[in-house]
Amino acid sequence: MPHLSVLIPVKDGMPYLKSTVASTLRAMPRDSELLVLDDGSTDGTGAFLAGLSDKRLKVFRNEQSAGVAAASTALLSHASGEHVARIDGDDICLPWRFAVQRRALDGVDMVFSQALMINAKNVPFKPRFEPGISAEAMPLHLMLTNVLMNPTMYASRAALESLGGYQATPAEDYDLWLRAATAGLRMRRIPRLPTIAYRRHQTQLSQTRAWSDENGDKILAESFSKLAADRIGFHGSASTVLYNRPAAGKPYPEDPDIAEFVRCMMEAASRLGENDRRGVEARLLASYRL
Asked: SUPFAM superfamilies of this UniProt entry (predicted)?
């Protein structure tokens, strides 16, 4: 049984998929497998994958696209490694990624990291790396925004399988993190060190499906509501909190649910250690322009 299964769901991944696969295979340990699901591509993705020969590589295909959530869950069902990692088909895996994250998984169920941002021509943007987030503080940070990058995930396969995979929502990754936190899974983000080069380009899926624009996303709102009730005792409207971000430079909209959410968050943050408390309060104050 391989120790690590790396998952790449991809649709129309050319030309970037070539560097994703090559860099991932170079970084992977010997006791690992790379699982790629071609989710109904109509470009040269299928032909490229068919031409590869590496005993660690397993390729699957959907004739019709099932979407990233279903494709990711299908790949998880094929994984046999003790650990599972994700990367998107347009990113680059940095050489030290899996060694660093394997060590960082000690004591937690899921590990995430920073990313070096690059453009379509592999030119990096000015680096901006944030501090780490502890497992104790992670549920509170997640109720303020999605602080975790899906293509940097490294996790216990048993932990992911306990959640049943991704749900059919445009914010399938954020929804999974919220459910993981509610289930008591421990997640941490390691500080500053990037493990992938994350490519920003006009055709990438995440550019067209920001979770904060999905006002009708009842699945995400339900997952948020369960975590907020469980961790901070908030029972107001999850949709009000999720989908009423103010315009830049303007105060947060006055609403009793928002005021109650902020009160519950501040009270929960006060029970954390000093460094964790400061991190949560800083994000809370910046988000709500208090």
From this structure: Nucleotide-diphospho-sugar transferases
